[in-house]
Amino acid sequence: MTHFSLVDDSRRKIHVHVARQIARKILSGELQPNDKLPCEMVLCDALGVSRTALREATKLLSGKGLIESKTKVGTKVLPRNYWHFLDPQLIDWMESLDDNQVFLQQFLGLRKAIEPEACALAAAHATEEQKSVLTTIFQEMVMAANRFDFNDWTIHDHLFHKTIFLATDNQFYIPFGNILTTIFKQFIDHSAEGGRFCLEEHRAIYDAILAGDVAGARTASRVLLNDENQKLSLVVNG
């Protein structure tokens, strides 16, 4: 039987607390697709919240494709193909799971499929202004790596990748890059914790984009995203 804990009404809205707790049980597999959630009365009692808060929470979860509620039938967990994996809030809930390695590995696969082409497009289409911005960001990354300043590296690494998506001259990459900022944090924020910032791999991407080297930018991105470079981020929470 799935057990729920009383919700701590501290900083967030109560219904977000409730949604997060239920979502974590779904994301962790404690609640499986097609499992039914306990009835409202049971859930309200277990969580210590009102029916209004619970209904707002279920509405939030429904909007993310995690559950489906039907009158006289109840609420059930939906199959994974309905889940909105690129929803920033859902990603945040994934990050706090005890075992999030499957999600992280799958996201790395997505990055491998998309980011090299984004770098290639940036090499082909980046404006002088965008190259100037990328230069400033990369210089900050170099200084952060030399100081072993993990926090400063993280900030500018995020900006580095976001700027590349903006420089693709493809409007569909721009919102995708914005959405992925939250997901990038699951990899990038931890990639330097083992003592390695992958500075030279980023330098290769930067140099290729500034030189307009499409093939070189694509190849450099693939090198950055290989499993050897990314393995640090996959073990920090293990």
Automatic annotation (TrEMBL):
Native source organism of the sequence: Vibrio renipiscarius
Xref: Gene3D superfamilies: GntR ligand-binding domain-like (1.20.120.530), Winged helix-like DNA-binding domain superfamily/Winged helix DNA-binding domain (1.10.10.10)
Keywords tagged on the record: DNA-binding, Transcription, Transcription regulation
Ranges where the HTH gntR-type domain occurs: 12-80
GO molecular function: DNA binding; DNA-binding transcription factor activity
Lineage, uppermost ranks: Bacteria, Pseudomonadati, Pseudomonadota, Gammaproteobacteria, Vibrionales
Protein name: GntR family transcriptional regulator
